[in-house]
């Protein structure tokens, strides 16, 4: 019995050793030239906050799916994946033709970020796939090739953002938070529970970006988090390959020996600590959560954790799909699915069940969506299904919770690889009151002791078998108040919802999407550069902020003509809204009009 109590005691001790934050924060007046630069980028002009040696601008960059190809040859044939033959392969790549990114596209993208964004953002969410696709038998990928290119891309970004004023290699000018992509591993999609050669090598490659005290956790499964605003905001990097249906080494997230189960055990400990410290969190990863990508047992747990920690979690940031869109995730559907598995009752969901008008809302495992190199096919059909089956099933406002908090939102951004046109996204968030919060921040628990406790706790859980056959019940179940340690406790009723639901510090305000007009750049009509594609508060979307309720409202409008064709089918404004949204989904490449399905 003492052995079983010890990990619980260790968890309690994490909060017993505290350190004073020692922070001094103040608003800094923005110079006229800096304000002009922001306006040119269609970004909001606001004064940054200086915190010790850090400057907080209230912005961050999301970049994903670079897919650099060292064998790309301008003037080669797309039929040969732009590796040979004679054709029209452009200098910077070509939208839709199906080749990976020329190294020059990657290098010029990094240089554009260095020139235009480096001094305007707080951190970078970098959601994986830094390797070419394995789609040419004449140029097979090897494990060493993958490590080498990951190291090359990582090293290039480190050189851009390293801090020349410190000897600490982890003290960057701009924090980078990487996530593992399904093409960053060998063979692609296949990733085993750690520690393995791959987890050890990726830690070495990303050592400048991962806090040293999370080495042991990272070696377990390539997941970690980074505190990006001291004591206030963190970015949690999830290894989505453990939730991904296309990973043959993953079964589900319900067995204690499966890596997805262990990921949720770790995530639960982290979120509990973030709530205790009063911190907010972005979840990030490569593969976005939906019924095509995640095993259903993993998807419903992801949604339920997001729901029960909606005071902490702001949202999710993902890549992989190359299509710019958003995914509302329904906690009621997740609880219904979990109830069907016998793990909980529908009554455990604390939303409004009265006068139910959406009984058909449920999580249903769907055929996987293949994302690979080559010309993209059937992506309009996919977006039509998102319109009808995702946006069309968003509950009415009355049934969505007081602040839309029945839902959480996963955001999928455009990729650098020219599946369509290359894209980058800059998010802006509310920093009102942040300087005061930092100056008055109470002492908090020591992170080193926290991680030591996490290591002990996770190591202990490794010793717990799925079933103790001598008792007929799991030892963990026998002494635990919950049978499944990867299901969250209910959110306490007295804790208000977080920045995703009501305006407050760290609420997302807007984002601006940038893209490269490859046809014009390759033709010499424009110099290389990312230009403004759209912003969420422009005349098309009119989004006053990026609260969950704003996204639900947009989703309802996008789906209205197909959900209520009699009332909305002939509305030209709604038709134009969908046409523009679809064009943005494919990064203004005109894909939707070219007959690829």
UniProtKB/TrEMBL annotation:
GO terms, molecular function: endopolyphosphatase activity; exopolyphosphatase activity; phosphoric diester hydrolase activity
All residue ranges annotated as the Calcineurin-like phosphoesterase domain in the record: 59-290
InterPro entries for this protein: ASMase/PPN1_MPP, Calcineurin-like_PHP, EndopolyPtase_N1, Metallo-depent_PP-like
Keyword terms, alphabetized: Glycoprotein, Hydrolase, Membrane, Signal, Signal-anchor, Transmembrane, Transmembrane helix, Vacuole
Cross-referenced Pfam families: Metallophos
EC numbers: 3.6.1.10
GO cellular component: fungal-type vacuole; vacuolar membrane
Secretion signal, residue range per the UniProt entry: 1-25
Membrane topology: Single-pass type II membrane protein
GO annotation, biological process: polyphosphate catabolic process
Reactions accelerated catalytically: [phosphate](n+1) + n H2O = (n+1) phosphate + n H(+)
Family: Belongs to the endopolyphosphatase PPN1 family.
Name by which UniProt lists this protein: Endopolyphosphatase
């Amino acid at each position: 019995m003492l052995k079983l109590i010890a990990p619980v005691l260790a968890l309690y001790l994490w909060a017993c050793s505290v350190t004073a934050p020692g922070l001094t924060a103040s608003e800094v007046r923005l110079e006229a030239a800096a304000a002009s630069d922001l306006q040119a980028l269609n970004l909001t002009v606001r004064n940054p906050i200086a915190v010790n040696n850090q400057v907080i601008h209230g912005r961050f960059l999301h970049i994903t799916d670079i897919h650099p190809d060292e064998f790309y040859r301008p003037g080669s044939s797309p039929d040969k994946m732009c590796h040979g033959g004679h054709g029209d392969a452009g200098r910077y790549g070509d939208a839709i033709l199906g080749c990976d990114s020329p190294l020059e596209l990657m290098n010029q993208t990094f240089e554009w970020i260095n020139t235009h964004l480096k001094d305007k953002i707080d951190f970078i969410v970098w959601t994986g796939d830094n390797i070419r696709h394995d789609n040419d038998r004449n140029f097979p990928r090897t494990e060493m090739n993958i490590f080498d290119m990951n190291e090359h891309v990582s090293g290039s970004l480190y050189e851009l953002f390293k801090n020349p004023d410190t000897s600490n290699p982890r003290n960057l000018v701009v924090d980078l938070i990487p996530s593992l992509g399904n093409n960053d591993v060998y063979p692609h999609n296949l990733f085993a529970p750690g520690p393995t050669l791959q987890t050890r090598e990726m830690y070495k490659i990303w050592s400048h970006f991962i806090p040293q005290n999370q080495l042991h956790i990272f070696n377990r499964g390539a997941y970690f988090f980074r505190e990006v605003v001291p004591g206030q905001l963190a970015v949690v990097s999830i290894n989505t390959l453990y939730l991904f249906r296309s990973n043959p080494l993953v079964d589900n997230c319900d067995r204690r020996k499966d890596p997805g189960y262990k990921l949720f055990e770790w995530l639960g400990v982290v979120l509990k600590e973030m709530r205790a410290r009063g911190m907010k969190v972005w979840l990030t990863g490569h593969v976005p959560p939906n019924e095509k990508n995640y095993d259903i047992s993993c998807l419903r747990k992801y949604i339920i954790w997001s729901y029960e920690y909606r005071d902490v979690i702001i949202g999710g940031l993902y890549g992989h799909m190359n299509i710019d869109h958003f995914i509302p995730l329904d906690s009621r559907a997740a609880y219904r699915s979990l109830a069907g598995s016998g793990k909980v009752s529908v009554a455990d969901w604390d939303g409004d069940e009265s006068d139910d008008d959406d009984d058909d809302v449920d999580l249903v495992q769907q055929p996987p969506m293949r994302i690979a190199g080559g010309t993209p096919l059937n992506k309009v059909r996919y977006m039509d299904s998102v319109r009808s089956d995702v946006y069309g099933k968003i509950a009415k406002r009355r049934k969505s919770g007081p602040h839309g908090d029945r839902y959480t939102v996963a955001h999928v951004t455009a990729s650098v690889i020219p599946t369509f046109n290359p894209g980058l996204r800059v998010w802006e968030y509310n920093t009102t009151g942040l300087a005061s919060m930092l100056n008055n921040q109470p002492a908090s628990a020591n992170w080193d002791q926290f991680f030591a406790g996490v290591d002990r706790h996770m190591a202990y859980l490794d010793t717990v078998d799925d079933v103790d056959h001598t008792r007929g019940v799991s030892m963990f179940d026998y002494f635990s108040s919950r049978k499944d340690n990867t299901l969250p406790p209910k959110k306490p009723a007295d804790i208000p919802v977080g920045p995703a639901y009501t305006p407050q510090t760290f609420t997302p305000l807007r984002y601006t999407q940038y893209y490269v007009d490859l046809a014009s750049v390759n033709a010499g009509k424009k110099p290389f550069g990312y230009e403004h594609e759209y912003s969420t508060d422009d005349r098309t979307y009119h989004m006053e902020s990026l609260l969950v309720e704003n996204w639900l409202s947009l989703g309802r409008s996008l789906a209205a003509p197909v959900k209520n064709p009699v009332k909305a089918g002939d509305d030209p404004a709604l038709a134009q809204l969908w046409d523009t949204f679809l064009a943005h989904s494919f990064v203004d490449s005109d894909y939707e009009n070219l007959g690829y399905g």
